């Protein structure tokens, strides 16, 4: 998650309301060495150390040390830590000549405007909103539920069955399993494949 927050701040692409589970990665060593370097180089600069501590303490509480194999992440968790990063960048930019700095900031700002304009169009539609989540989170059961429903509406029963099968594999609760066994059984029955519909009905009956 530590690496995720750095990447999303400096390279805000593939944004989504929900993200796949973030797994540990060796990339976490990059910000780790940056932290060590900052402390060693600017330990006598009060402003830099204040901004650094603001950022570090506000992001430290987001790190889930009890989750060794995965962790949950979200863009909104970076609101407070982002203040520290922005102050640090502002301090660094103040040391750069304006003739060099302004074009760099202009290009970066325009790229953010283009990215955010695209995302606004995505959030305006419910279907596009859900599709965006599902696109970057293949383990989100709601995405397969959504795809199965949309394909059923279009008359693609076979495709709906495939998505319901994925939802069954990802289901974690009896309620979810009951729902998707029921829907897949109905889909098989609609196709006249009773030999495949009955096992789903039987599985549902055993769980009730």
Please tally the helical runs, counting DSSP H or I stretches of 4 or more residues.
Answer: 10
Tell me roughly what share of residues is in helical segments: over 70%
User: What is the overall shape?
Assistant: elongated
Per DSSP, what share of the residues sits in E-state strands of 2 or more residues? under 5%
Unreliable runs, pLDDT <50, ≥5 residues?
none
Intertermini distance: 39 Å
Order of helices and strands: HHHHHHHHHH
Please outline the major beta sheet: none
Number-wise, the strands total 0
Average pLDDT level:
76
Q: Describe the oligomeric state of these chains in a short phrase.
A: single chain
* Radius of gyration, CA atoms, in whole angstroms: 24 Å
Structural class: mainly alpha
Structural notes for this entry:
It is built from ten helices and no strands. It is an all-alpha fold. α2 packs antiparallel against α3 (46-60) and α3 packs antiparallel against α4 (79-93). The longest helix has 26 residues, at 98-123. The radius of gyration is 24 Å and the shape is elongated.
Tags for this model:
208 residues; mainly alpha
């Amino acid at each position: 998650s530590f690496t995720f927050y750095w990447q999303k701040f400096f390279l805000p692409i593939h944004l989504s309301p929900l993200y796949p589970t973030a797994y540990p990665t060796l990339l976490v060593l990059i910000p780790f060495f940056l932290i060590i370097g900052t402390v060693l180089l600017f330990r006598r600069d009060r402003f830099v150390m204040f901004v650094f501590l603001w950022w570090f303490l506000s992001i430290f509480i987001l790190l889930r040390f009890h989750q060794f194999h995965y962790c949950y992440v979200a863009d909104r968790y970076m609101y407070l830590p982002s203040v520290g990063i922005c102050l640090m960048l502002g301090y660094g930019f103040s040391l750069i000549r304006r003739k060099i700095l302004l074009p760099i900031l202009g290009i970066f700002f325009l790229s953010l405007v283009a990215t955010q304009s695209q995302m606004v169009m995505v959030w305006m539609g419910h279907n596009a909103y859900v599709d965006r989540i599902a696109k970057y989170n293949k383990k989100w059961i709601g995405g397969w539920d959504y795809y199965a429903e949309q394909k059923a509406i279009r008359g693609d029963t076979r495709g709906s069955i495939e998505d319901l099968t994925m939802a069954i594999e990802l289901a974690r609760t009896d309620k979810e399993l009951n729902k998707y066994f029921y829907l897949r059984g109905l889909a098989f029955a609609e196709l006249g494949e009773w030999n495949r519909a009955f096992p789903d009905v039987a599985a549902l009956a055993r769980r009730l």
